[in-house]
Specification:
- The protein is α+β, with helices and mostly antiparallel strands.
- It has a domain at 2-90: Ribosomal protein S6/Translation elongation factor EF1B (Alpha-Beta Plaits, 2-Layer Sandwich), CATH 3.30.70.60.
- It is 31% helix and 34% strand.
- The chain contains 3 helices and 4 strands, in the order E-H-E-E-H-E-H.
- The chain has a 4-stranded antiparallel β-sheet, covered by helices on one side.
- Strand 2 (34-50) and strand 3 (53-64) form a beta hairpin.
- The longest helix has 17 residues, at 14-30.
Length: 131
């Protein structure tokens, strides 16, 4: 599984942007790939200028494809002049494993209380009240 993320020139029309995405999707399907997910956004502000542009369209397409056919997609992406930055990454399928939860230890250690005799308690109270 691969993920193609690219920034497109913000000065092109949204119709041209749709044509670019359609070209890429068509190239993936011609290479016997399967598109699993795509994400389009409006213009975004960039953190720093890219090719002297402060805004760009941000597009992500996830697809499945055989490794030996990926070069044809790369050449297709590189041939489009309106794409100002591109990145193709390999996404490994992740299996989420449930973690075993250990039960909490509920043993509370308490100090053994010494029993005080009533006579001693009375004597201490008298001492406190006299002062």
């Amino acid at each position: 599984m691969y993920e193609l993320t690219f920034l497109a020139n913000p000065n092109i029309s949204e119709e041209d942007l749709g044509n670019i995405v359609a070209q890429l999707k068509d190239a993936i399907t011609r290479a016997e790939g399967k598109i699993t997910k795509d994400f389009f956004s409006k213009r975004i502000n960039l953190a720093y200028p890219v090719k002297k542009l402060r805004q760009a369209f941000f597009i992500t397409v996830e697809f499945e494809l055989e490794r030996n056919k990926l070069d044809s997609i790369r050449t297709q992406v590189n041939s489009i002049k309106s794409i100002i930055r591109r990145l193709i990454i390999t996404k490994l399928p992740t299996k989420i494993k449930a973690k075993k939860i250990k039960p909490l230890k509920t043993k509370i250690k308490t100090k053994a209380k010494e029993k005080i005799k009533i006579e001693e308690l009375d004597r201490k109270l008298e001492e406190i009240l006299e002062t």
